[in-house]
Amino acid sequence: MENQAMTGTDHQHSEAVVQAAMWLADQNPAPQPIIPHIRERFGLSALEACEAAALSTKYRILRKAHG
Fold it and tell me: Which of 20, 23, 43, 59 has its CB 3.0 to 4.6 Å from that of 52, i.e. a possible disulfide?
């Protein structure tokens, strides 16, 4: 069996990470710097904030693709 990275539905995000990602996806322009801002606003660790930032990009892409 191949070692696969945990992406998409394979990886469970905490509710705080999902909420931060949804909020960030709605920001135009996004606050800068992003990671410290969402860490403070949502009480996330650095890793969780990075996950939220990456997830927000997926949300933006899906919104553009599906209207």
Answer: 20
Q: Which residue has the tokens 């696969």?
A: 4
Domain ranges for the chain, please list them: 14-66
- pTM, whole model, 2 decimals? 0.77
Are the C-beta atoms of 52 and 17 separated by less than 8 Å?
yes
- Spatial distance between the Cα atoms of 23 and 17, rounded to a whole number of angstroms: 10
With 0-12 / 13-18 / 19 or more C-beta atoms within 10 angstroms meaning exposed / middle / buried, residue 30 is middle
Distance between terminal CA atoms of the chain? 37
